[in-house]
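Replying to the earlier thread about multi-chain prediction with a worked example.

Input:
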Amino acid sequence: MNLELISKKDLLDSTGISYGQLYRWKRKQLIPEEWFIRKSTFTGQETFFPKDLILARIDKIINMKDDLSLDQVAGKLSPSLPDYELRKSDLLKRNIVSPVTLHRFAVHDPENTVYSFELILYFYLIDQLLQAGDMSMEEGERLLETLKDHFPKFDGKSCELIFIRKMGVSSFALLSLPSQLFFEKGVKVVARLSMTECIEQLKGKLV
Amino acid sequence: MDKNPYSNLDINGVATASGGQYERVNIEGVGKVEGDVRAASFRLNGVATVRGNVETERLESNGKLKIEGRLSAGTSHMDGYTDVLGSLSGEHVTSKGLLQIRGDCELERFDAEGGFVIDGLLNAGFVNVQLYGRAKTREIGCESILVRKIAKSQWKEMLRKMFGKWAAGLEAGTIEGDDVDLEYTAASVVRGNRVTLGPGCRIGRVEYRTELKKHPAAQVGEERKTGDGSHFA
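Result:
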């Protein structure tokens, strides 16, 4: 899979923002460092961005900055996990995770168990994949294991979850961004989710 | 006086101290700090080396300061020679003399009198450079930048003695900003909204959105108007 790139100049022309704004947003960490991809072209070094990611991000910033200060926007967008905890019963009540998922994966926890943001994120992800019909319950258990084992290692850096299947055999992978990944023939990419985006979605639901 | 939970670090004369969290760091003379330092304020008169990162709200340095890690400072005044092996981040830096940053530099405002060398990207809201030495950086990205050459000063004489004779000037790979106003600058690419090029500029390619003002003595390889109305650019 190849990430489509957009050059800085095309980005500024198509979004109408200025160099100053772009650099200011970078300073405020509204745009992650790893999206700035330096490549040499025939005119010298140029900076490129992952097209879909940066366009969605700029759209978000422009929409939010009317109501919020840049620092507040930065807080909403940062990939770091907030200090946020929720009881199991509240997860159900607020419809963040469906009862089926919780029943399957957290059946042994009493109703008043308090979950950390990370764990809520894992349940949320599994719930999303299950509801989309992409994944079976057994695979969900393996995904939960994978996330518990490996997601904390990224330590706030943005990463992606890849879910592939070949000849009915499925597997999960977490990879740091930006990276390119190529598969052999016959591999079906069932889902490719940006963890950062999931965190943002979940933050939007919780707060 | 028990209001502050942390003690002060005072060095008078020649001494080595350990890093850590302090209320105030005050070095007069020759000091060395082993490890990371966090302090509300950091003052130096003389020569100091910090073998680690420095995090402070106010930095004031007179003399030679070497930081072998990252520097993050709210406001800094640096007179003399400052060498940071890591990156520099903060709100406002005023540098008189020579500033050397091996990593990236992220600031809201950067005022430099004299020379500087930044190996990475200089990203600042407002960049104000008064040249009388050689300034060099890979890349500048900012809201507005103003580069001027100062005719005469004592510092210039001293820098010339220290580093031999060279022409004062700014050298950069790319300079990008909304308002770009340059003098005595050599750059391969300058991109901006309003671009003004004064005497002594040697620019490979200029891309501008609204206007370009050019001094007759400025050399420009290629000029291009981009965006906003010219769809064929």
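The beta strands of chain B are 9-51, 54-67, 71-84, 88-101, 105-131, 134-149, 169-182, 185-197, 202-214, 219-225.

Feel free to reuse this layout for your own posts.
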